[in-house]
Amino acid sequence: MKSFKDKLGRIIASLVVVFVLVVGVVGYVGWYNLFREVPIPYESYKSPEDHFKYGSIGTENAQGVPYWIWLVLPRIFPDKLPGPGGYTSLGITWEEGKETPIGFTKKTIGFPRVGITCAVCHTATYRTTQKDKPTIVAAGPSNKFDLQGYIRFLGATASDPRFTPDYILDEIKYNYQLSWVENLLYRFLIIPQTKKELLAQKESFTWMDSRPNWGPGRIDPFNPVKFNTLQLAKDDTIGNSDMMPLWNQKMHAGFALHWDGLETSLTETVQTGAIGDGATKESLPVEDLQKVEEYITQLEPPKYPFAVDEKLAAKGNQIFANTCASCHAFGGERTGTVIPVDEVGTDRHRLDMWTQEAADTYNKFAEGYPWDFNNLRKTDGYVSVSLDGLWLRAPYLHNGSVPSLQDLLEKPENRTAVFYRGYDVYDPQKVGFVSDGEEAERVGFKYDTTVTANSNQGHLYGTDLSGEEKQALIEYLKTL
Ligand code: HEC
Ligand code: HEC
């Protein structure tokens, strides 16, 4: 009897050991394939620019799309993109030999995931002629990237009946051999979960559908923060605003940040940039973002790539000193400050989108963390931004409503009322991107200044100058 009891005891003990081992192994395999975070050290990027373009800003944990799924979606659903060329049809730039386009990371958290970075919006391209390859200018404002199109594409794929493990695994097979374990995880966990999350993301952006489209190079950056990050009640504001360049921050010390000056701290602007793009309080990589801040602080603005008439520009410099410098020159008494909207007279929708409540809530958002936000605020106007690298900031004004410098110096009633944006061939006559003609219309987004929040009114400075004076001023503006 005793020996039988002993035996039973030993069997139970072994079963417990085996059970613990199995749970441990399954747990480990699960953790390894789903949650193990593989850091990518700053030193592994070949330059600060490379880190800016491809380094993680912490968006993969909560919002990362599994790399292999992300890669095959355009191949399964080309019908849901605006044209051929996969993701590049959304104005995304893919450098030769890279695994992801500019502004997209590949980071392993259990499995490789794709996240977005600052560079997806803050990298410009231009071409001097239609046949040229685009010149890439890191930290410039993107004139092409259609974030709204990207969000809608992902949502549309998830709603399609073809978004199934069979379809997706079949397509992945042509690109990569998943292991047996990976295959199981993709089939039963990763693909169904991705579908669920993309549908939830689609749902969280339905408010966009009742407002004017953003078009390329433009987003409504703070309504998602209000509605999703801060969980404030939905309102009917329109915050569409043009991308801004990030270079030369060393010269911008003390300037208000964002079009309406809703921030005064560069460090917080960089961190809120990452939060706004999907980083969480837990995933925010404070040290890496410090590197991004150092990079944009030191980076010089790009030089105008065409010839400049120096004599004419010198004349223009005088006109600038008399009519523009007080608000736009480094050292000008109002440069980098908020100019009341009633004074500058431009479209007020972007300003009215941001509220005191939103500023207060964001200032409390990260309380208790080693980093924190304290400098968000509500203002009553738009910042008299510095004009360094101005030539590449087109189209102009906070809502991107004026295609060229030539247009900006016209009275609003004479500015171009309808144009196409998103085409990156440069027009050195008007000083801005080519915004009409067959090609611009083919690849571009029709920008209609009569649509709500697209108004091109206001900023009348310089519109009374003579034709010759305007020409000289524009020549000078090319040199900034
Ligand atoms: C999805 C597009 C997008 C991404 C990604 C993005 N930004 Fe921006 N950023 C914008 C837009 C649009 C503005 C202007 C917004 C406004 O004020 O209405 C802006 C404004 C800024 C400004 C203010 C510039 C000035 O002169 O006032 C800074 C600084 C900035 N972003 C830094 C960053 C950094 C750093 C990251 C990455 C951590 C980042 N942004 C990610 C779109 C983006
Ligand atoms: C009283 C201050 C003030 C004066 C004077 C002034 N501006 Fe501005 N400027 C602003 C403000 C404010 C904005 C932003 C308005 C907006 O985007 O709604 C702006 C925006 C601009 C922009 C758009 C920048 C971009 O990135 O899109 C250009 C270009 C510009 N100004 C050129 C000039 C020129 C040239 C002159 C002189 C003829 C001039 N400004 C005079 C206040 C001023």
Please describe what this structure looks like.
The structure is a single chain. By secondary structure, the chain is mainly alpha-helical. The chain has 18 helices and 13 strands. Strands 1-3-2 form a 3-stranded antiparallel beta sheet. It has a two-stranded antiparallel sheet with strand order 4-5. Helix 4 packs across helix 6 and helix 6 crosses helix 7. The model has no long low-confidence stretch (mean pLDDT 95). Bound molecules: heme C (2 copies). One heme C (HEC) binds next to helix 9.
N-to-C terminal Cα separation, in Å?
A: 96 Å
Approximate strand percentage: 5-15%
Number of helices: 18
Strand neighbour order, sheet with most strands: 1-3-2
Mean pLDDT: 95
Q: Tell me the Rg in angstroms.
A: 26 Å
Bound molecules: heme C
Shape: elongated
Instruction: Give helix % range.
Output: 25-40%
Q: Count of DSSP E strands?
A: 13
Characterize the largest beta sheet: strand count, sense, and whether it forms a barrel. 3 strands, antiparallel
| Structural class by SSE content | mainly alpha
Detail the poorly predicted runs.
none
